[in-house]
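DUF805 domain-containing protein structure dump, as promised
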Amino acid sequence: MIDEKALRSIEKLHEMKANGILSDTEFEEAKAKLLSGQQPRLTSAPPIREPVTEPAEDDYLAWVLLPLRRYAQFTGRSCRKEFWLFLLAANIATLVFLILGVMIGFQAATALWLLGLLAIAVPYVAVQVRRLHDQGRTGWIALANLIPYIGPFVVLAFMLIEGEQGDNAYGPDPKR
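structure tokens r here:
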């Protein structure tokens, strides 16, 4: 009789085979070892995390939080809606900290604002890179942000450009 742990392991093996992680021979060998009471040693890589799906068209809060869910994902593509709603939320948060600074004192509000800025720096650059990928451009263009005075404006101008329709070298079309 098969115990519960072995049954779960066989189910996991089926899932890994369906996802293309295990070949048919690796699957059969691991299953035979499980049924004989031995623990199989899998040489294949662990399953890859499933990609984050895009929210519903009218779920604006989910669109704002999507770059945070894709925290340091520099691959793939992002639509303009994802970038601009994230930027809008970041600017509203900055305005709130500015108002708090006037009300409670600039030192405490500035410290909180700097912590928030550090927290969103990586997702902000990542969503910029994905927007550039959406246009078929390399993400290295985001380094133009480092050019004094004009760099951020150049990158923002790129963020306005519509992405390529259909799949490109960086992935499927986020608009579908």
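Residues 60-160 form one domain.
lmk if u need the other ones
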